[in-house]
């Protein structure tokens, strides 16, 4: 399991897949029978060494705290079960309180630290299964981005047309956020950057536009350009040729420049919300 060949750099975990069988049962009222058979499933087992170390450190601090409480006599009622689980306490008239750790119980508690598992009846690849699992809250994160990052917690519009325009802009913004995340995953950049860090760096880039003139960008530092190479220029190029530049290139370009930063950039005014 914890062989170097099972290590996945993108998720920083050891991963392996174990095919298993499970008892499948399905009642069929329309036929008056029940299907019973063995079917294959995939047990995906993972080990995260950093998580194991964190859990072990947390347990050590907890044990030290419990021991101090027992030695001082200042025990807490809510910790009674933990005292009994991890320690043997002896009280003698001469030596007072003697506290001994139950090492076998402690070792048993630590042996599974860092491990977690997923099970699937369809996905065989352990890395793909973990990708799917960690994206299960994609919808919640999208709503979170809308409310927090893209300022849609309150609509603050005065007409139905303004509402339509704002929702359209927010939808396009989500496309960019999703694209940046996908590009970072494909290029295995999450070990070096975070999505929030990339967006924060892009936020400080300003651009200026005048009708009939080329868009001009403000000062771009070396650090900004490093981040820009991840997503901004690729996004701009892809979006530039995805529509009809003759009809709506001006609008699309404005939306692109603002929204791929994740928020409205100062000194840039959109000329329209629709094409």
Biggest beta sheet attributes = 4 strands, antiparallel
The structural class is alpha+beta
Approximate strand percentage: 15-25%
Order of helices and strands: EEEHHEEHEHHHHEEHHH
Please report the distance between the alpha carbons of the first and last residues.
55 Å
Number of domains: 3
Briefly say what this structure is.
This protein is of the alpha+beta class and 275 residues long.
Task: Report what the structure shows.
The protein is α+β, with helices and mostly antiparallel strands and 275 residues long. The protein contains 10 helices and 8 strands. The protein has helices at 49-72, 80-86, 103-110, 126-134, 138-149, 160-186, 195-203, 222-228, 232-240, 245-259; strands at residues 7-8, 13-28, 33-47, 87-92, 96-101, 115-120, 207-208, 216-217. The chain has 3 domains: 4-47 and 114-120, no CATH class; 49-110, no CATH class; 137-259, no CATH class. α9 runs antiparallel to α10 (245-259).
What key phrases describe this protein's structure?
alpha+beta; four-stranded antiparallel β-sheet; 275 residues; 3 domains; two-stranded antiparallel ribbon; disordered C terminus; extended
């Amino acid at each position: 399991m914890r062989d170097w060949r099972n290590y996945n750099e993108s998720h920083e975990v050891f991963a392996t897949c174990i095919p298993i069988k499970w008892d499948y049962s399905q009642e069929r009222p329309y036929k008056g029978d029940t299907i019973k058979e063995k079917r294959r499933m995939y047990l995906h087992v993972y080990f995260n060494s950093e998580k194991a170390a964190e859990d072990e450190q947390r347990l050590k601090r907890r044990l030290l705290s419990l021991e101090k409480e027992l030695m001082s006599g200042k025990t807490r009622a809510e910790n009674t079960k933990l005292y009994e689980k991890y320690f043997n306490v002896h009280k003698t008239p001469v030596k007072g309180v003697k506290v001994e750790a139950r090492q076998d119980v402690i070792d048993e508690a630590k042996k599974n630290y860092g491990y977690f598992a997923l099970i699937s009846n369809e996905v065989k690849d352990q890395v793909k299964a973990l990708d799917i699992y960690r994206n299960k809250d994609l919808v919640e994160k999208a709503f979170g981005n809308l409310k927090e990052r893209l300022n849609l917690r309150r609509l603050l519009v005065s007409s139905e047309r303004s509402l339509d325009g704002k929702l359209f802009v927010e939808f396009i913004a989500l496309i960019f956020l999703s694209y940046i995340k996908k590009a970072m995953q494909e290029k295995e950049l999450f070990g070096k950057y975070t999505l929030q860090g990339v967006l924060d760096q892009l936020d400080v880039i300003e651009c200026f536009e005048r009708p009939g003139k080329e868009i001009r960008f403000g000062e771009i530092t070396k650090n900004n350009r490093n981040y820009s190479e991840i997503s901004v220029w690729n996004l701009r190029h892809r979006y530039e040729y995805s529509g009809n530049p003759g009809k709506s290139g001006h609008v699309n370009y404005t939306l692109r420049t603002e929204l791929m930063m994740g928020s409205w950039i100062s000194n840039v005014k959109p000329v329209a919300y629709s094409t």
